[in-house]
Write a structure and sequence with these properties.
This protein has 89 residues and is α+β, with helices and mostly antiparallel strands. The chain has 4 helices and 3 strands.
Length: 89
């Protein structure tokens, strides 16, 4: 008589980190909006001056900010500025 073995199921992920398979990147248009509707030059200046994380190369002609680093920078920036973004009239 043969016995049928049940296939073991993988345990459920215990944290959000385990669910993420690949890092997510924030591209320029999204970064401009999330940083307070700023221009690409403002982001470039902040990046050059070390006020924000550096972009990473995603592909041959594609760059973006690692979302976890970008989010951490946004949180720290809001703490310094009191949550005030740039306002346009």
């Amino acid at each position: 008589m043969t016995t049928i073995r049940k296939k073991k199921e993988a345990p459920a992920p215990t944290s959000v980190r385990e669910v993420e398979l690949e890092p997510r990147y924030v591209r320029l248009p999204e970064a401009m909006k999330r940083a307070g509707d700023v221009s690409r030059m403002t982001l470039a200046n902040w990046e050059r001056d070390g006020e924000m994380p550096r972009r990473r190369r995603i592909g041959p002609a594609t760059t973006g900010w690692l979302e976890s680093e970008f989010n951490a920078w946004l949180i720290s920036r809001k703490a310094v500025t009191g949550g005030a973004g740039r306002s346009r009239s």
